[in-house]
Amino acid sequence: MKERITVEARFEAEGRVQPLAFEWRGLRFRVASVGRAWQEASERRFLVMTPEEQVYELAYAPEPAAGQWWLLRVPKGLLGGTLA
């Protein structure tokens, strides 16, 4: 899956990006914690956990998508999504 989403994030001076919340299909999800973060091709990827302990994978593409965010994977059982 790869769906565009809106993300509230903190961008720090040294280049660190911290997702705080995201909106997907009309629902808002608060990010309780950010686990693994890595670079893959031109995207910065994040595994985030909500307060309900559900894990999502987000991607941030600063270029050339002008700061676009994507939802890549959702928790197993939620709309057929899976996380490895």
Describe this structure in words.
- The protein is mainly β.
- The chain has one domain.
- It contains no helices and 7 strands.
- It has a 7-stranded antiparallel β-sheet with strand order 3-2-1-7-6-5-4, with no helix packed on it.
- The protein is globular and about 35 Å long.
- The two termini are 14 Å apart.
Question: Alpha-carbon distance between the termini?
Answer: 14 Å
| Helix-strand sequence | EEEEEEE
The total of helices stands at: 0
| Strand portion | over 45%
What is the rounded Rg?
A: 12 Å
Percent helix, as a range, is under 10%
Mean pLDDT: 89
Q: What sort of overall outline do the alpha carbons produce when their principal axes are compared?
A: globular
Question: Taking strands numbered 1, 2, ... along the chain, how are they ordered across the largest sheet?
Answer: 3-2-1-7-6-5-4
Described by strand count, sense and barrel closure, the largest sheet is: 7 strands, antiparallel
Q: Give the uncertain stretches in residue-range form.
A: none
The total beta strand count reads 7
How many domains? The number is 1
**Structure classification:** mainly beta
Give short descriptive properties of this protein.
seven-stranded antiparallel beta sheet, about 0% helix
List the helices and strands and how they pair.
Layout: E1 3-11, E2 17-24, E3 27-30, E4 33-40, E5 43-49, E6 55-61, E7 68-73
Antiparallel strand pairs: 1-2, 1-7, 2-3, 4-5, 5-6, 6-7
Concise description?
The chain contains no helices and seven strands. It has 84 residues and is mainly β.
